[in-house]
């Protein structure tokens, strides 16, 4: 195995507290903002009395739809805050208090009196909801519905059949650093320090909303304390902070209170997924249907594309994959780590386990038998696909062969013990990027690119890519990222950051070497600079299907008396292209797997039908795994360099770790107990 690689370049700054996050910039005269969320699930604001709020000591202003700066239209209506009197869901912002201190702003927000004309609301996702429709496209632009061959006929005649419905609740990302912005206007220019996954998108969105040339806006995201997708697109805090700074003429800092996040920064929508698998006695699939029912909001359509992995994973000559969605009076769903794939593979991989039981074929062997060299839905060959190798290597490392397949076959005192397996899958996305490389006369290098490090180690990996492309030692390279003042780059999302940024960095570094070579190896006093842009290099419709694969194995214990499920061992083997940095890759993969344990056993947001509100508003009620919940997590990978993808031969690793984990755990729970829990999270009462 490769060496761990360098430690994070910004590690010292972070652990000594000198790395500055969005809410740690305090320009002179900074005022502080606190939002006022709507207290009804649907209706209109009829009056806002700001008198008491403005009488608070330290009060500066209250922004409402009556006095806030007007915004231009945008395709993301979740950002059109304080523009009219509509309340599309509870928690939608209806006012913003601004004061000399955060405490005063909070007191003001509590003193704002809002009168509403409430309307009937509908927040319950029911499978037979009369307003369900099939969207033309689901998230990521995929077709809402796909049909191949004759599913009904093939399923009806299949010797072995599985028909199971899996349900999942809404999920929230909850990064350690809540969404935050410090914004200031100077001579008609806007500077925003924003906690986001991609500053260029924020800059462009602000330019559109405020009707400005984007060259007059700088967005800085130098350090970001986690995102997982909920910072993948601009969020209301940056718009509100910019509005408040313009309105008051002072720099304004807005940190969203964690209790408000559930309503305004997106969630993974609740899902009802019906899986039908028809197979031969040998377990080979002849018919596959994956039918997804979910919700979106009335503000913005976002359809979790959970049926998508069923279009890619296994042989399925007759296939139906559909999404149906209903727009409810709920907060807008949005990105959460592996949107589509994480919940979709939970359902598909549990159904595969049920098929293994029904056909009597070992779960690892079943997946091997249904492997395919081409993506079934598109017919395109995979540029590389090493799922089988991951399954075999994982089985070997985990000790799968010793497994007695019968449920309830292992016990240790009060504990039932079980093991389960699931496949992992995540598509490879690549986006055009630009970058710049500079060399000084003394042979020091500087790489500049507006990449975002959301805790992944992006800086470090880009330095490694540069060192590799330049053929020089890492310590001669400085990397500047995290500002729109740098060459434009795409967001840290879709597991596409490193591949997309790295490609541009690689290209700039090679161009720089070419310039130095052309001068006979000499660098002039001012140094040399090379820019690169991969807009012409990244194919828009590649001839190959591109994805990373993996296999995850879980061992759980289930307490017969309490129903408590513990994950004792979790082992993943991934085929994710060339691993550029073993240290940061391992961290990404086990981080994703840990989040998958949360999805399996702990996480879930509850929509209160009366109040139209998510009940969980803090980390005491929204449970995520702690260290004690995650024992023995191992991530491994197999050698795979896919030069059809990019010059590094890498695939993304940010999301694949969470894909399959919940199914591996659920399948292990079934093996331990004989109980098939088809509803996440697997709480104690469900297994007793
Ligand atoms: Mo990730 S959900 O693509 O930020």
Automatic annotation (TrEMBL):
Aldehyde oxidase/xanthine dehydrogenase a/b hammerhead domain boundaries: 16-120
Pfam families for the chain: Ald_Xan_dh_C, MoCoBD_1, MoCoBD_2
Coiled-coil spans in chain: none
Single GO MF annotation: oxidoreductase activity
Keywords: Molybdenum, Oxidoreductase
Database matches in InterPro entries: Ald_Oxase/Xan_DH_a/b (IPR000674), Ald_Oxase/Xan_DH_a/b_sf (IPR036856), Ald_Oxase/xanthine_DH-like (IPR016208), AldOxase/xan_DH_MoCoBD1 (IPR008274), AldOxase/xan_DH_MoCoBD2 (IPR046867), AldOxase/xan_DH_Mopterin-bd_sf (IPR037165)
PANTHER family (alphabetical): ALDEHYDE OXIDASE 1-RELATED, XANTHINE DEHYDROGENASE
Protein name, per record: Xanthine dehydrogenase
